[in-house]
Request: fold
Amino acid sequence: MMGADFHFRDKVQVGILGATGSVGQKLVQMLARHPWFMINALAASERSVGKKYKDCVHWLMPTLLPQELAEMEVSACQPGLPCRVVFSGLDSSVAGEIETQFAEAGYIVISNSRNHRMDPDVPLLIPEVNLSHLELIQFQQFPKGKIITNPNCSVIGLAMALKPLFDRFGLEAVHAVTMQAISGAGYPGVASLDIQDNIIPFIQSEEEKVETELLKILGKFQDGKIDPCSFKISAQCNRVPVSDGHTACVSVKLKSKATEQDLIEAWDAFSGAPEIVKLPTAPEKPLYYFHENYYPQPKLHRLIDKGMAVSIGRLRKCPLFDFKFTLLSHNTVRGAAGGAILNAEILLRQGQIFW
Amino acid sequence: MMGADFHFRDKVQVGILGATGSVGQKLVQMLARHPWFMINALAASERSVGKKYKDCVHWLMPTLLPQELAEMEVSACQPGLPCRVVFSGLDSSVAGEIETQFAEAGYIVISNSRNHRMDPDVPLLIPEVNLSHLELIQFQQFPKGKIITNPNCSVIGLAMALKPLFDRFGLEAVHAVTMQAISGAGYPGVASLDIQDNIIPFIQSEEEKVETELLKILGKFQDGKIDPCSFKISAQCNRVPVSDGHTACVSVKLKSKATEQDLIEAWDAFSGAPEIVKLPTAPEKPLYYFHENYYPQPKLHRLIDKGMAVSIGRLRKCPLFDFKFTLLSHNTVRGAAGGAILNAEILLRQGQIFW
Amino acid sequence: MMGADFHFRDKVQVGILGATGSVGQKLVQMLARHPWFMINALAASERSVGKKYKDCVHWLMPTLLPQELAEMEVSACQPGLPCRVVFSGLDSSVAGEIETQFAEAGYIVISNSRNHRMDPDVPLLIPEVNLSHLELIQFQQFPKGKIITNPNCSVIGLAMALKPLFDRFGLEAVHAVTMQAISGAGYPGVASLDIQDNIIPFIQSEEEKVETELLKILGKFQDGKIDPCSFKISAQCNRVPVSDGHTACVSVKLKSKATEQDLIEAWDAFSGAPEIVKLPTAPEKPLYYFHENYYPQPKLHRLIDKGMAVSIGRLRKCPLFDFKFTLLSHNTVRGAAGGAILNAEILLRQGQIFW
Amino acid sequence: MMGADFHFRDKVQVGILGATGSVGQKLVQMLARHPWFMINALAASERSVGKKYKDCVHWLMPTLLPQELAEMEVSACQPGLPCRVVFSGLDSSVAGEIETQFAEAGYIVISNSRNHRMDPDVPLLIPEVNLSHLELIQFQQFPKGKIITNPNCSVIGLAMALKPLFDRFGLEAVHAVTMQAISGAGYPGVASLDIQDNIIPFIQSEEEKVETELLKILGKFQDGKIDPCSFKISAQCNRVPVSDGHTACVSVKLKSKATEQDLIEAWDAFSGAPEIVKLPTAPEKPLYYFHENYYPQPKLHRLIDKGMAVSIGRLRKCPLFDFKFTLLSHNTVRGAAGGAILNAEILLRQGQIFW
Reply:
């Protein structure tokens, strides 16, 4: 492992699969000035191949598309891209197969898609939460390539907020009702006629993802595999007219007794391993607990700590469970592009990108 | 009791307390063409007294203010109003005392405020749910007047959807997360800078109201008082950028076994007493169950059946409780002005307004 | 012509072309309980043909889909439908040809599409504004059928508000900046990611429609054709995050001198011909002038007079033109489905549907 | 004047008047990490004096309030504050007198309020547009203090976009319709019930400000005073449901002939004086012209170049004027706090803060 004064001679060349989609765009935006990575390939579906990126992307980011990327020619999503690492923001209808092809061709695949998340040898990685799961990639069968995934945007906040409670007090049951931002549905995604002044009380497959991914993420790596944990989860997922930031109302039943102060201390003390904290995209503090009773709020807190921290508030006793609280995480940053980039950073930092 | 061919020679003259507020305005709008009631007095706080209604109201309703009401002079909120019934949309900071004064002066007070809701001799009335509670008014100590209240806007949908489950299967526990419309906060209420593209995870005293009012509403009237029921409730209340219509994600634990089909049948079969169904403001059907998994939605369903019905959907098994589902009710109609008017209608229909 | 005690023995059977689209749905909603028309056919594109209407429509209206229409089998958009009149809410990519086929097959085509609007023998009809244009249909070359169109949703409010000014004072120039609702773009139409908390300063072909349709509408019928008027128009069209209701900021230069009071009187005096006022869908008053300086507002005024009236306010002198003012009209009611239905009503009332 | 390698030994201590208001908060946010200024005093109205800033501010910024400012005790808005420069975000009901007091007491007052904007000896300053107006402060009668103002948020974009056209082609007439963000109204400002899904076609005094401030800003400094220019302006101002960013649809009549290309070149070539470009808060490029016809959009472009640039698009011929186009500027950054800070920076850069 490298020291704190870690520097690279040259940036690592990366490609983005699904570069015109909304996760792809966020990856482009966040990687455009990344200190360690340099975008060397933008790949998308057939109808974009051969065009300049600016001519086939409906750019939705609130920053100008950098000139050199605007002019870059879009490639097909096939191995042969001039890079070592590919970030995948592909739609799940095609992600599974394409990502496998890239891994087989020797690429490190940093995926935000759901297809390989539950594969037994693929880490569903949140560096601050389950860094040990990264060991799984040694068991992957690709000659040189690897696949690493990050969780669904509705799961990331829960996983990070629950991790310190799970470690200190044990979890028996988790009940979560989410209020999810429209950007979570991609582009064009939710029609304005459907969501303006409205709530949609259903998101396809979302509740299932919460109820399964969380158990893997908090599971234990041993004997070359993940032993998922076994507490019960019930999720209800809603789409709300908020641009970015997923909010969740959470109730938890713990295994051991704890006070409200104990929980807040657990959250305040929570931090990733020392090598994580210094990563370019890592938050200074992964969890922020707010004592004001009207916090957290998506408009105010989704972007704190570069959009990579999870905000928590309103902890109080629950008449049915032990405690209830509210949490918030940025779905396209921490819950998608930023999470993927952080995963790539820890890989690079651990020297695994150079295998 | 009068027959089905029930007609009044003259309309009953009514007054509205707090007529310039948002509940007051909704009362004005709904009573302006009511077949049984005629607005004869508009009362508001000191700074409006003596002015024409149109000159002191910031009219927020999507219909034109009727000419005769626009020109009506606003009175003070003191007994002496030329009517027999007063509807109160007063702010809770003043409602308690003023409503008592009116009741003591012999008025029938139909209140939407929270102040007297938990008084032991005051019905917290939803005609389809607990009509028997109306007996309580015989025990009120006013010489002639009476006070009848309707529940908080976040409680009404829960009470109506849970009533048939409570009756058929018994309730052990109820967990509710609400997503409440901005109109529930009155005017000016929520600042646009606070709620546009945002969620506020806190509404003052709202969770307490859900957790207490529900037990009284579903309680049993006997021996001249209400015996509240005793299941456990946990509520988490959020403000969302929706104009009208409170949505709730509900989980329930029942006392006896039931299937999803049993619950849907219970909801479908639910109806008020026959004399309620024919009231001018009563819904044809109090509960609508939708089988489409993306329903109910505030924008589509808040106004069905004149805004007086509760919509339910997404019933499914819950890994932690027995079942979970989503419900929706119109907060300023069924949850405020419409609920109050329905209460007045049943009183009139039962002949109690002429005591 | 029939007398004021006009009644039909039987309702006229009508069909709706493009019944699953957003204009089609509004037509279904408004015709479902129409006193003169009965929906006898719902037609849509190939992928819906043969299915029940409820199974192929993404119902967006805030009222329940009537049961008998929900179960109706969807037909193809081809002559042979069991009705005499067809309302067309077809997309302009296919409307031109299909509408012509229906007219040739003998149907009365009441179209909301743009394709035939500028045809020399097709009335671009607003009954209160240019009823004489209806004479044009005598010159249509179809053996029995006819085509009548109503204007674009961004034009209707302008045409109605300008008509009395044009008649009394003459128009030299009109400058209009519109702020148009999302429902004007159909479904799925505008993506929520594009319009939430945003303005899009461009709507394809919209400015051209304003600048051409208005001149035909206010033109004079003589010698079997419309002589368009010739004042200058400049339009700037924007999409804004409003559900329904197009607002326009208008500046006008008149031919003759007039005071603000003169204009208001012209608007107040404006009315359609007597036989129009009594039509089921006609507004009691086509134009409402508001003296409050913060009116009109889409949320408050789009639905006045069944959504069929145009609201005007803020009339004041303009340093560059003579006057400026703001107007509002409901784009899917007066500007689409309601306008079409009113056109069909006047045809029926004039006995022309039975030719 | 100092050289390009300009550095200060110590940061200049500044105070903020009206620090709890929405402009005040934006000033706090932007000055919290300013390279040249250090906040040394936070002043607000009586009810906040003596409290910690965090306890009397309803913090609306999407970044955390820095700890040292959160704990700072709020002072009264009276001379005696430990600083040399005060930024004023005071409400106009009190700003006039308080700002005069501070100037008389020797402070440099950088004001965002409207009260002194039209004073003959007070610069209404936009550094890129009218830097020469700064000479006016030599004629101010305060012993040591000075007052400098920046324009209203609805004027700033117009002034910047029109400046190069005015200089190159001359202006005869300007017609502007604005669509203004809710943040322009301060806090609590616009009630959500008034603006959600709505447009308010009126903003108190706003049209007058556009029609007067613009003429002073583009006026010529000579003989110790500003000679305002004399073209005609007509403004129509609307409030729309957008969080930040004022959009305007503009039509212009020029004095000399020009092509669309000429205008775009004028905008592209526009830049402030060299000493302005290097100021910490100055945009790299004051004006961005977009060739995409659906740009500019508030959600995408309000924050480009730190929120300090003006975006322009949709230039085309106008049937009534010569040209029409759309512009966008960030109302609380370029149009308020950022504009004020840039004014302070140029003062400091020119050595005038040390007079």
Summary: The two ends of chain B are 13 Å apart (CA to CA). The longest strand of chain B covers residues 171-180. The CA atoms of residues 196 and 330 of chain B lie 20 Å apart. The interface with chain C takes residues 59-64, 196-197, 299-304 of chain B (CB under 8 Å).
